[in-house]
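Per-record layout

source: Paraburkholderia sejongensis
name: Peptidoglycan DD-metalloendopeptidase family protein
length: 238
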Amino acid sequence: MLETTRIKRLGCAALLALLAACGSAPVGPGYYRVERGDTLSKIARGNRQSVQNIARWNNLSNPDAIEVGQVLRVAPPAGAASTSGAIRSGNNGGASASASAAPRTAPADTGATAAPAAISLVWPTDGNVIRRFDGSNSKGIDIAAAPGTPVVAAAPGTVVYAGNGLRGYGNLLILKHDAEYLTAYAHNRALFVKEGEAVKRGQKIAEMGDTDSDRTMLHFELRYQGRSIDPSKALPPR
């Protein structure tokens, strides 16, 4: 019994990691993927940069608001330069840096990574959007309709999770579209695809329900490099 409970807990932890950064590919030179326990200060020290430089290069209005799986630029963008000798050790082992000569860029409008134009989605279901993305309390959008309303794949991809092991999501599907993008479909009453299955854009993958929810709806998320972004930016207007 204890072993079963332990396995379930490990499974939930794995699902959390999956939803945060499923299928993420190794990052390229000059970038760093945030890991559990990281702080911006720790990342800056590890890459011999200042916190100010990294916050500016990544449009971080709040340096404390980084997420596991998020990819950060840790080297100067083209045409910019970091402070020479960005980190100098003092007597207390801390770090200090002068301001960078890099030009300041405008912050993202939502405080989260803006959706690049590299993916185009179709609406995953019919219905009314009852909750929109805000990047903090809402990591996606909620769409309400009648029980059993078809849920379709928003883009072609592969099913990387199909189950109900993640609290708060009910019957959940996660699709991986490429090395950077995935979508999640929560609260379904029925799932019609299995893990490892390839799906086409617009293919029926589930039916809307109210599992682990107080009303019938689809909770739909879009993740880019592990970070939640506003799916409405990649959806066609209604």
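summary: The mean pLDDT is 77. The first strand starts at residue 31 and ends at 33.
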